[in-house]
Please model this.
Amino acid sequence: MIIIGITGTLGAGKGTIVEYLVKEHGFHHYSVRGFLIEELNRCAMPANRDTMVQVANELRAQNTPSYIVEQLYEQAVHSGYNCIIESIRTPGEADALHHKGNFSLLSVDADPKTRYERITERKSETDHISFETFLENEQREMSNTDPNKQNLSACIAMSDFQLHNEGSFDALHAQLETILNHILVKS
Model:
């Protein structure tokens, strides 16, 4: 059983990687976003980037910096299948999952303008924002000294494998296949 986590910048292709692993390799998908949307629904709060960040930070502060992903990790282990956990956003999450063993963290990045175009095309409820707001949101999540808050820079630095997603789907899939072969050899 393999468990992969994925981190990366906004709109870089985390979802595309997840879709590929699910469709082509039978991975089961566990989503921090899905977990948070369920929590927001329970609290009767609107689902947007700000409320997701707020609830995630509160859950981490009330429990541990890795609380959310550890809940997802336990679900993944109980499934017995290869799994991917999307998306790792704090160093505490990355560290906790690395200590569980048989875990690899992938990161993905791309040019900011390319990423903004992607998020506007996907038309998600959290992505109706200007380019300036997009950059502000990302900057807010890129670094933080509070272990309960997003620090994408640190997570990307902690990743075992990095993907750069500027090209075609085929180019991204080729990078991913190389990484999967390496993970399979390692496990």
